[in-house]
Amino acid sequence: MKNFSILLILSIYLFSTTELIQLLKIPVLISHCIEHKNNNSKLTFVQFLNDHYNIPVKDNDRDTDEKLPFVKHVNFLNITAISSTVSSEVPLMTSSIFFEKKLLFYPDQYYLNTYTCHIWQPPKIS
Questions:
Q1: How far is residue 61's CA from residue 36's CA, in Å, rounded to a whole number?
Q2: Measured between alpha carbons, how far is 62 from 58 in angstroms, rounded to an integer?
Q3: Alpha-helical regions (H) of the chain
Q4: Which domain of life is it from (predicted)?
Q5: Is residue 66 part of a domain?
Q6: Residue range 18-34: average pLDDT?
Q7: pTM for this one?
Q8: Please, is 3 exposed, middle or buried when counting C-beta atoms within 10 Å of its C-beta (0-12, 13-18, 19+)?
Q9: 50 domain residue, yes or no
Q10: Domains contained in the chain, number
Q11: Is residue 8 part of a domain?
């Protein structure tokens, strides 16, 4: 059942996005070939294909000729861009709760210690 569903989904996808849908027109090709064979008994299938695909002739059955597979090509893939306007305004959230500011640094940390400049000196070359 799982394999069947995978094959079904894959075939639906391929038939809807590629030219494989043209393969469903093969019965039209066969019936049209039989019609021409009834009119001309010496006509072979290769001659029929040559007459309808290599050198298309405008005759009284042009409507049927256009229904043959791979005569008309359809553009299946369409890229569509949809633009939507989205509001970029962000509502401002104001808070009525006040917090006390706490100092993270104490004032004596800003003063330079006199010993630190003596400790961290580059080595002296004598």
A1: 10
A2: 6
A3: 2-17, 26-39, 45-49, 62-66, 116-119
A4: Bacteria
A5: yes
A6: 89
A7: 0.52
A8: exposed
A9: yes
A10: 1
A11: no
